[in-house]
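Hi everyone, sorry if this is the wrong subforum. Our group has a chain we'd like a structural model of before ordering constructs, and none of us has done structure prediction before. Sequence below.
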Amino acid sequence: MLTSIAISNFAIVESLELEFKQGMTVISGETGAGKSIMVDALSLCLGDRTDAGVVRHGEKKADISASFDIQDYPHVYQWLEERDLEQEQNCILRRVISKEGRSKAYINGRPCTLSDLKEVGGQLVDIHGQHEHQSLLKKHAQRQQLDEYGQLTELSKQVQQQYAVWRQLKEELFAKQNQSAEQEAKVQLLSYQAQELEQLDLKEGEIESLEQEQTFLSNIADSQVKAYQASNLLADNEEGSICSLLNQAIHSASQINPPTQELESALEMMNAALIQAQEATDSLRHYQDTLEQDPERLTSVENRLSDIYDTARRHKCLPDTLISLRESVEEELSKLQGGEESLEALKEKEELAYEKLTALATNLTEQRISTKDELAKKVEEQIHGLGMPHARFYIQCQPLNQVTANGFEDIEYMIASNPGQPAQPLRKVASGGELSRISLGIQVVTAHTSTIPTLVFDEVDVGISGGIAEVVGRMLRSVGQRGQVFSVTHLAQVAAQGHQHLQVSKKVINEATSSEVKVLKEQDRTQEIARLLGGLELTEQTLAHAREMLSNVQLQ
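Answer:
Right subforum, don't worry. Here is the predicted structure as tokens:
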């Protein structure tokens, strides 16, 4: 519930801090004093749109904070926890509006989006304005209210979500059933490309291997000549080969006397060089034996490479990307050629989605039908007590030809104000007074089943007076006994029913106007009730009447 509110530089409020209790809190005051300013400020904390005009004249910004105790509302705590915004059992909503019209929103001291502020605010406070009946004239608001009363909001949401799934599948199915000639041409092109790439059957690493083999086969003759020349220089030339010259050098060096360590080292290196030269000669001779020209294989390799390069040019890609191209062409072709199979699969998915949708919508219809009569009966009882004893209230569920996102039926509130008159839609009722009473009756009934901790009624009793006003007050008090209710009112009969009474007044200091809010005690409250009864001039009679009204409330 709402535990406190702090308002700074908002409209004609300079600075205001209030703490609230459970039960029914009444807010009264003279016309123009700013009774609804607190409601307007709270609305901004709940995510309503704003503009620069709300900032107090001469100030840079308006700042509003509302604190809530959520220990008995785990769904709100869970919402905060999912977004890492939890703070023990409290929820503090804050809104700052600059004089330029920019605004910032905070939840538990952390910046947030306006949509988040609105979402969590909708779980904490429900505000019923004096023009609330205008929204109740709309069918979608009536349907939403019926679903909320019957705790069908989640089921209704499931119907909407499933309807969206079904519609998307239906559109996909329609598009696939009307495949264009352009797509058919694409299938033919892809089929030709896939066949060509399949015939080529290029393997991973094949191009590099073929190019290396082509280089080898093309250079065999030249390799044979150079290998012969190298081996001849090493050993095959008896007179001037390296091996012959090394033997002569070793023989000459070995004749030197006396032998020294340096000479021994030189002889070792020359012997090692001779051994390596002989081994190199053997390797070259073995390599020469492997060199054999193969014109047929060379032609085969060159033809294979030519096929690969030509295919790459036709497909306007690099040769080494032909393998990935084949995979992508086959994948795309598989999707298109599998159209008949995909069409059947998609058709089956669409039918299953529709079956699920109709099952959910049928369940929703059944529960709406069982809920509507209960709600209608309770609303009718309320409006009978509001000076419409012969009125009959109905909720019509008109079947539709096909399922919609909102189910199988069209919901509409119906009213017959007088005996013998046929019921007609609520939107066609001409009397504004009747609309106010019916709207108030609906709001009171639905408030009893609301999961929202704080309910605000902003002058919903306009156009009501006398004994009916007392009934309205009792209605609001009974709702407050189950939770927390705020009522902005100008009626003494309603104000007397409050558990807590706040008086709003206006003062002018140094030509600056501001609002003040005072928590009324017994004597002050008696005077305020008397003022509501008889105006500014308080008489002993109005004071006595006020004391009697407050005393009667205590005895209830």
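For your construct planning: The radius of gyration is 47 Å. Residues 203 and 323 are 7 Å apart (CA to CA).
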